[in-house]
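STRUCTURE:
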């Protein structure tokens, strides 16, 4: 029930403008990228789609079931993205699509040269903390993930630029697609560490930091302690952590505590005040403010929705 990080809505095509009820495609071509908007207005199964480039797809409406070679099939929902490799074929089911519940998906086709140049620049100018894990775009193990606010914001700007008629739009598009790639790699780095930290705790200093935060979530956690675990100065740790993962250590601690608070709020007998302290917050007003900021609703309303469902 958390707030999905969705780009701003894109209007559906009027029925008379649809050339197909299954994966109707609208294309916006710029020098730096190609933006596609796909819509499906009826049920369909085993629909193949290949874009020829590395593609970042993002679900906006409805539900798909994705079949990618070598991986189990999975449901694909709004607020999620999938990176598809060059010349890889997606096979897609649309089990619920109809006129009232169409699916809508963004697909950003990214030139190979742009990916290579961005990755090379990062590895040369801003190398990652672990030399054995250089920057790269993963199209296999961490290719399906929930969007972060930063990635969503970049996608929104790409959509805006695709409709822009100004003379400098292609220049801005070039910078924005590079930013999107950085945000995308940061998102994948988060997925690697936040969901698989135990596997990497002895080989990645930030995995050890994540493990410590999860194990001491209800205690006072200082940046000094975390930087000590990472074998870095406080300033270097803070800077490199944010550069690699796209958020600060403090922001990550807040997100983890809010996730724990949401879990506790699902208990019908738990009070908001009790949840606040059990999740590691020491001030109920601050807890309520953060919860509303991140989730869009108050803890009390979240609890009522959980009980009602």
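SEQUENCE:
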């Amino acid at each position: 029930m958390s707030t999905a990080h969705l780009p701003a809505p894109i209007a559906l095509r009027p029925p008379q403008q649809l050339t197909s009820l299954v994966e109707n495609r609208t294309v916006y071509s710029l020098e730096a990228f190609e933006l596609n908007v796909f819509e499906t207005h009826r049920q369909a199964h085993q629909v193949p789609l290949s874009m020829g480039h590395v593609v970042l797809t993002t679900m906006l409406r409805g539900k798909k079931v994705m079949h990618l070679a070598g991986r189990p099939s999975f449901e694909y929902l709004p607020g999620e993205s999938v990176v598809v490799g060059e010349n890889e074929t997606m096979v897609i089911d649309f089990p619920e699509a109809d006129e009232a519940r169409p699916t809508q998906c963004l697909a950003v086709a990214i030139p190979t040269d742009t990916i290579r140049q961005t990755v090379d620049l990062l590895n040369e100018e801003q190398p990652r903390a672990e030399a054995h894990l250089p920057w790269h775009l993963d199209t296999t193990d961490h290719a399906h993930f929930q969007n972060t606010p930063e990635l969503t914001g970049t996608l929104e700007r790409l959509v805006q630029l695709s409709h822009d008629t100004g003379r400098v739009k292609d220049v801005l598009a070039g910078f924005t697609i590079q930013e999107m790639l950085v945000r995308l790699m940061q998102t994948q780095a988060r997925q690697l560490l936040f969901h698989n930290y135990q596997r990497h705790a002895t080989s990645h200093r930030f995995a050890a930091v994540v493990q410590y935060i999860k194990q001491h979530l209800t205690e006072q956690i200082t940046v000094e302690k975390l930087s000590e675990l990472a074998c870095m100065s406080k300033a270097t740790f803070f800077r490199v952590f944010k550069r690699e993962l796209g958020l600060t250590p403090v922001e990550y601690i807040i997100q983890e505590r809010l996730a724990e608070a949401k879990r506790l709020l699902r208990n019908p007998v738990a009070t908001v005040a009790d949840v606040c302290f059990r999740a590691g917050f020491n001030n109920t007003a601050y807890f309520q403010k953060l919860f509303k900021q991140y989730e869009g609703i108050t803890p009390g309303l979240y609890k009522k929705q959980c009980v009602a469902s």
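REMARK: The mean pLDDT is 92.
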